[in-house]
Design goal:
The complex is a heterodimer of chains A (302) and B (579). Chain A has 302 residues and is α/β, with parallel strands linked by helices. Chain A has helices at 17-25, 28-31, 69-86, 102-108, 112-115, 132-135, 140-147, 162-175, 191-195, 227-236, 288-294; strands at residues 4-10, 36-40, 46-47, 50-51, 58-62, 92-95, 118-128, 151-155, 181-183, 214-220, 241-249, 254-260, 263-268, 278-284. In chain A, strand 11 and strand 12 form a beta hairpin. Chain B is an alpha/beta fold. Helices cover 44% and strands 14% of the residues of chain B. Chain B has helices at 39-47, 64-69, 73-78, 80-94, 107-111, 150-163, 176-184, 187-194, 196-220, 237-258, 274-279, 293-300, 313-318, 322-336, 355-366, 368-376, 411-423, 441-449, 473-494, 508-524, 536-541, 568-578; strands at 98-100, 116-117, 125-126, 168-174, 224-228, 261-266, 284-287, 306-311, 341-345, 398-404, 431-437, 457-460, 463-467, 497-502, 528-533, 551-556. In chain B, the strands form four sheets. In chain B, strands 1-4-5-6-7-8-9 form a seven-stranded parallel β-sheet. In chain B, a hairpin with a 7-residue loop joins strand 2 (116-117) and strand 3 (125-126). In chain B, helix 8 crosses helix 9 and helix 14 (322-336) crosses helix 15. Chain B starts with 38 loop residues before the first helix and ends with a helix. The chains are: A alpha/beta (302), B alpha/beta (579).
């Protein structure tokens, strides 16, 4: 018996996995294979208000909510075992939870009972172009999903400034140098893109802090600050700075300072929030201690 | 009194009288160390990194309690009666040193307005997040002791406390970061950048909930408060120290002020945060299989923090065998060492975990001897060699195999060997005995090939006859005799004929006739005995005179009756058939 192909869909909650799943189910090459779906209970149960029909698909819902892959392991393995015994499905689509680490899911399929019957055809990561740089430093799984993907679909590009797309792609490329990348809206990827994906098997979990990992560094800034010097320090970070945000007093009252891919804005506010002059940088490819060194002249003393 | 195995010489076995046989009970009950430490004392000592008499064992029984009493996860997590009954069953079966009242990280969230989805074999899942749906944080208040299912859990605590004074009771409370996620949804991660002040407020509120719930469990009778915060494994150490540490430190301080001990439990890949977890001030850090136990040990112990874990939940405890569970437990215990370590599963036990696997872990935790046996058998899983035992025991002699750990180092094994040695002389020439010490690979292969599972064991001609208990002399003699008789019957039944060559051994013609007969039997593969009679008197009894040799007589055998006294008329008919 040939191994049943498995297509894994990952991505942060809100990235659009449900839409991508629906799109893939509509591909003729997939629809003809009586796909089985393993989905998060709170994911693709309802698409456009209508439930997926159990007559069209064999659906296995994982009822662990937002909890962990090691706890899900038995449920996932049971679902795969039932699919294999059912004998109907010729392809399996797995919509991972938003916090799933794909290496955990791959490892689950290595148990002898399943390794014989299933193979991963493609691990597709859907990236939310609008929010990924905000989420990635705070959620390890978000970066792991990108690192381990066989293909990346950069979604919601209609919501992102044109000039930012290249930078977002650059950030993704630093995390994953090999995966083909496609732009899309509402998860609409072409069927040919899916068909062309080659699975690359990774062994072991990814590093938690790869050289080009995206990190968030929060600075406790002095007040007032030299505006030009500070903004110059931010600009000098170049492409390593993805985003920044915080409240700063440049001597003319507090202001909300934001930077997105090199574009900065300063907006006066009535008062500094309780967090004081806390300023968070989201950077990639630069170490935390180097950031602290560069911004040492601007830090609050004592 | 310690019953740790020691090297010999061991006291001689008592003599059995003719009329009063005895049993030497070697392992009817586990050899439980009885150094006057209760399970509770053991757990509390380990939490404080003090000396213990043995490693404490704390199975995290949550919804699995339902499986023990035929109740669903929903039933056991929703009713104090069912919860108490399930935990009682778990205590009865697993003899733990400590146990959680329940393992349900949704109790506080539900009391705060999260809707849950229930399942038969899993804890419930949070389906809605009030703050995501528009509720204001200021509208939420810390749940009272009787809010939602918290009251039920506290009632169960009081009842279990009353009945089980000597076991450490764990009150599990949801950590503030996980609770924050329940209340706000995964938008939490984005807000850590967009609105850190709100996240601070949310975490402060959630820490209040965690602290207050901890107090409720403490006052209800819990000994240990385990703050379970799995979602912290999602964030890096910088974000942990920024958003979690200040609030978690406050929670642990609060627990200590109340007089309790605190465990910080995170499941998931939280290796990057173990150091930061210790900095929050817990007494204990507990992890799952995602984090190497030696890594946790090396971070925690130098900081005076005890640690626990990390039996593999699914691949071993749920899907593995009792032997695999024991191996995993031994690995953990050898890494964990004897101070500051608590053996536990990595997380909430799956509902359908086979009780036999957990009982097997208990066995090697409380019984040094069984642990030694399990350790000696550690390699048998990797042994692919199996002997072909299909023809074993077909020799003329009866083979008695004694599978032991080592009779020179282990009292039960020595007594087992001596029992066989004592009766062997009665069967001289018929019985051969040998000891197989499973500390050697060859003996392990042999044991595995015979499918022996317990040590010590006596096999007779490859069949397991006596397991663990040393048989009384009479029973052993009887068992060996039975096999001898069986073999004789088989021999008679299987012998179809005898070809008898009569003549002097020195006579060349007799020698040639014998050779021809041997060759013919061999070529045909016939089941025929070749018998040579050279005694002149016996030759004459066959009716042959000296000049008439070599002579060959073919005698055919046919079994006519076994096990009954045949009627005379039947015997007469048999005789008529051949005359």
């Amino acid at each position: 018996m040939k191994a049943i192909p498995v297509i894994l869909i990952t991505g942060y909650l809100g990235a659009g996995k449900t839409s991508l799943l629906k799109r893939i189910l509509a591909f003729p090459t997939i629809a003809a294979k009586h796909p089985a779906l393993i989905i998060n209970e709170f994911g693709a149960v309802n698409i456009d208000g209508a439930s997926l029909s159990d007559e069209l698909y064999d659906i296995y819902k994982l009822n662990k909510g937002s909890l962990f892959c090691v706890c899900l392991q038995a449920d996932v393995q049971r679902a795969f075992a039932e699919i294999s015994q059912g004998g109907r499905a010729e392809v399996v689509l797995v919509e991972a939870t938003g916090i799933a680490d794909p290496s955990d899911l791959s490892a689950m399929l290595q148990v002898p009972a399943l390794a014989r019957d299933f193979r991963i055809q493609a691990n597709v990561c859907l990236v939310d172009a609008l929010n990924f740089s905000k989420v990635a430093p705070y959620m390890q799984a978000a970066q792991h999903q990108i690192i381990e993907a066989d293909a990346l679909a950069l979604n919601k590009i209609d919501l992102v400034a044109e000039e930012d797309i290249a930078q977002i792609e650059g950030a993704l490329r630093k995390l994953n140098t090999h995966a083909p990348l496609v732009h899309c809206r509402h998860g609409n990827i072409p069927e040919s893109f899916l068909a062309g994906i080659e699975h690359r098997s990774l062994t072991g979990p990814p590093q938690s802090a790869p050289p080009f990992g995206i990190i968030a560094v929060t600075l406790d800034l002095a007040s007032p600050l030299d505006r030009d010097a500070f903004l110059r320090a931010l600009t000098d970070l170049g492409e390593t700075l993805l985003r920044a945000k915080g409240y700063i007093d440049f001597g003319d009252g507090p202001g909300l300072v934001e930077m997105v891919f090199g574009r900065s804005s300063v907006q006066p506010v009535d008062s500094t929030p309780r967090g004081g002059n806390a300023f968070t940088l989201i950077v990639q490819g630069i170490r935390r201690d180097e950031i602290m060194t560069r911004f040492a002249p601007f830090l609050r003393q004592g | 009194m310690s019953l740790r195995p020691r090297t010999g010489p061991f006291p001689a076995m008592p003599e059995a009288s003719e009329t009063k046989p005895y049993w030497v009970l070697v392992r009817t009950k586990p050899t439980i160390k009885v150094n006057d430490m209760t399970g509770k004392e053991r757990v509390l000592a380990a939490l404080r990194c003090n000396s213990v008499d043995r490693v404490p064992w704390v199975p995290f029984v949550g919804c699995h309690a339902g499986a023990l009493i035929g109740a669903s996860a929903t039933e056991v997590l929703s009713s104090a009666d069912t919860m108490v009954k399930g935990i009682d069953a778990a205590i009865e079966r697993y003899g733990p040193d400590g146990i959680p009242i329940t393992f349900d990280l949704q109790i506080e969230a539900e009391a705060l307005g999260c809707e849950l989805v229930w399942a038969d074999e899993n804890p419930p899942s949070v389906a809605t997040h009030p703050l995501e749906l528009g509720a204001e944080l200021s509208s939420l208040s810390v749940p009272a002791a009787d809010a939602g299912r918290l009251g039920m859990a506290l009632e169960a605590t009081r009842r279990i406390r009353q009945c089980h004074e000597d076991i450490a009771l764990y009150g599990l409370v949801t950590g503030p970061f996980t609770l924050a996620l329940h209340l706000y949804g995964t938008g939490l991660f984005m807000s850590m950048f967009d609105d850190p002040d709100f996240i601070e407020d949310l975490m402060a509120f959630c820490a209040d909930v965690t602290s207050t719930t901890a107090t409720h469990y403490w006052e209800a009778g819990c000994d240990v408060i385990a703050v379970v915060d799995p979602m912290t494994s999602q964030i890096g150490p910088d974000q942990f120290r920024q958003f979690v540490t200040p609030h978690m430190s406050r929670v642990f301080s609060h627990i200590h002020e109340e007089g309790g001990l605190a465990s910080f439990f995170v499941c998931g890949n939280a290796q990057q945060n173990v150091e930061a977890m210790c900095e929050c001030g817990p007494d204990n850090v507990s992890v799952d299989e995602n984090i190497p136990l030696d890594f946790v040990r090396d971070i925690c112990l130098p900081r005076g923090v005890s640690f626990g874990g990390n039996l593999q939940l699914t691949s071993v405890l749920l899907l593995g065998t009792p032997e695999e569970a024991q191996r995993n437990a031994i690995e953990c215990m050898e890494i964990g060492g004897e101070k500051g370590f608590i053996l536990a599963p990595g997380c909430d036990l799956p509902y359908a975990t086979p009780p036999a696997n957990l009982e097997a872990v208990t066995q090697i935790v409380v019984d040094d001897y069984q642990r030694e046996v399990a350790k000696a058998r550690t390699n048998d899983a990797t042994i692919e060699d199996r002997l072909d035992m299909s023809e074993y025991g077909q020799t003329d002699k009866v083979i008695v195999d004694i599978i032991t750990l080592d009779s020179e180092a282990c009292a039960p094994c020595q007594y087992m060997v001596e029992s066989v040695k004592a009766v062997a002389p009665e069967f001289e020439g018929i019985v051969e005995w040998r000891e197989h010490k499973i500390k050697t690979r060859e003996s392990l292969v042999f044991m595995t090939s015979l499918m022996v599972r317990n040590i010590p064991t006596i096999c007779i001609d490859g069949r397991i006859v006596f397991t663990s208990q040393i048989p009384p002399r009479d029973e052993l003699v009887s068992a060996i005799q039975k096999r001898i008789n069986e073999k004789l019957r088989i021999k008679i039944r299987s012998r179809r004929a005898s070809l008898i060559v009569l003549g002097s051994k020195e006579d060349e013609a007799t020698q040639q006739a014998t050779q021809i007969a041997q060759t013919a039997i061999k070529e045909l593969g016939a089941d025929v005995d070749l018998v040579h009679i050279s005694d002149e008197k016996r030759i004459r009894e066959y009716g042959f005179l000296p000049g008439q040799t070599p002579a060959i007589v073919l005698a055919r055998y046919q079994t006519k009756s076994t096990g009954t006294v045949p009627p005379a008329i039947a015997v007469r008919e048999w005789i008529k058939d051949i005359t």
